[in-house]
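Entry 14. Ran structure prediction on the chain below.
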Amino acid sequence: MATDGESISMSLAVATCVAMALFYVLILYVPTVILRLPSASSYTEFMIRRFICAAICTVASLVFTAFILPIKSWEASYILGVYGIRKDHLWQGVVYPLLLTSLVYAGSLVLKLLFLLESWKENGGGCSSFNYIRSFFQTIPASVLTSASNVSVWRNFIVAPVTEELVFRSCMIPLLLCAGFRINTAIFLCPVLFSLAHLNHFREMYIRHNRSYLRASLIVGLQLGYTVIFGAYASFLFIRTGHLAAPLFAHIFCNYMGLPVLYANGKGLVSAAFLGGVVGFVLLLFPLTKPLMYNDSTNDCPCWLGYCLWN
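Output, structure tokens:
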């Protein structure tokens, strides 16, 4: 482990980040390739195996990173602080990044609102709509229970966001910054590794779903492009706020919303909302992520890292 105040080499930081990215993908194939377990009998069993593998990889990455970083103290508050797991300024770390992220989905949100209004008109408005709304809220408990037992919900909104943000943000970014990489370099290097960790989707598209080579390449290429963009944004949020909650909840929200809606036939308001949202996002990107809004220190970002490692 590096001693107090001592930085780590750039080559070690990069090699560690690459190793963690590869480990995150390769461990998914341990049950069948190395342990020689029989193929999963159901999709649920298949995903549970992957959940366990992702959890093992995440814990191993966190422990290994802790031994490499020049952490001053082994107290839980210090170590968790390096990973961006903090209680202070928590609501700011959740609310402001979510508001910022939602601006990109202004078109999607407007489209959902228009569909809701159309449904309201079809139901005749007034009492009929009130009954419809009441019926909707009555189905929420059953929907929650159904979602809790849905393995895809766990994958998209819990396991994947938590493990990916811990490995690709909490572990990698402190390593790169402590190695002397510039903030901009760290912001764009992590997403490259983040996107490479999704290359296994090509195998699933090509083999499991019987897609053609060209179609699988196009689908995965689009996914990789999206993950690079989102990964850069998530890294930006993590560095600016020092909170894991910021990229984590943005990740969950983006998984729920999917790709932003740019336009809809016969609904120009959707396109206008999307453009307005993008303009608002660009204008508020830095004001809503000022480090002083998320930290007590007056130092420049990433102030949480300097505090945890060298104070």
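Residues 10-120+150-293 form one domain. Will compare against last week's run tomorrow.
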